[in-house]
Amino acid sequence: MRAVIVAAAVAFIISLLTTPVAIRAFTALKAGQPIRSLGLASNEGKKGTPPMGGVVFIVATLIAYVAGHLALTTLPERQIAQEKPTMTALVLLGLLVFCGAVGFVDDLLKVRRRNSDGLSAKGKLLGQVIIGIGFGIAALYVASTNGQTVASEHISFIRDISWLNVGKVGSVMVFVFVITAMSNGVNLTDGLDGLATGASTLVLGAYALIGYWQYRHWCADETFARANEYCYQTRDPLEVAMIAAAAAAACVGFLWWNTSPARIFMGDVGALGLGALIGGLAVATRTTLLSILIGGLFFIITITWVIQIVSYKTTGKRVFRMVPLHHHFELAGWSEVNIVVRFWTVAGVCVAIGLGVFYSDFLTAVG
């Protein structure tokens, strides 16, 4: 637990203290976010606010992971908590950094062109797919010394579903879908000050708890193996807990400056990176289907966006005033702060229910 706390504390402090530095640096470079009004009250006064703030919490998470590993050297249980960076860490942090890089290019093009047109939708999707394939192969084909891989050939809910074996190729395809879907879900949610940051903090916090719970009931621990007790067949759950906690804490530090009125935006670099990390955490913890519930707000915003597009293209009619969904409520007269707080509440309820389902499975098994 000490390593997880150290990683979280370091990430929070770095993010909190360096975000103002990033604000001044981006402002000096005149890297302001181009804003299209679209008749939305929330867009008034936001022109010129620096984007690309996601760089701060991505870097903070990386540094915090190193700090957490340094703390591991003082732990008596380090014999089952890999002291060296593992494949799990390389996959999760790689998704965060490389999908964040796709978003960075998108943000940079917007700033340079002085308009809201960055990478095309196809360009961003292609980048996400390529990254997903690369790390999906690593997650499926690179095993630890005990044969355990980061991802599984089975579709998972709270653990692998034994009869849903899709094979290695199918599992890589599922991996790519989860990463791109969650990445774009967070990106769609990032439309109001602090909305995506706060919601991501809740989801990442949930995965920190899940990772640590799996670590305390890990099949690789000989105590559980000898006793034949209920345990989780995952790889490097302490790494999962450490990275999720670090990312959550980094988001909290960033939220101090990102909440309304935002002095900096996370941009696509932050949204795509966070979404990819959350998708990777779902795969690594064998909670792929459960992530739909844990990340329920992202799912709701994505599915309503799909409904709007399909309805308009097939019938010429819109179901909502505007998508993503938070803009629908803006046009209905809700204030930006009310929307953000209420959407955070929805995200929190989804996280609470998801954790409840996860823990109830444990209680059922041991009861």
TrEMBL record:
CDD domains: GT_MraY. This is Phospho-N-acetylmuramoyl-pentapeptide-transferase. The chain crosses the membrane at residues 54-75, 87-105, 125-143, 163-183, 195-215, 236-257, 263-283, 290-312, 339-359. It comes from Actinoplanes cyaneus. Mg(2+) binds at N187, D268. Its cofactor is Mg(2+). Pathway: Cell wall biogenesis; peptidoglycan biosynthesis. Belongs to the glycosyltransferase 4 family. MraY subfamily. The gene is mraY_2. HAMAP family: MraY (MF_00038).
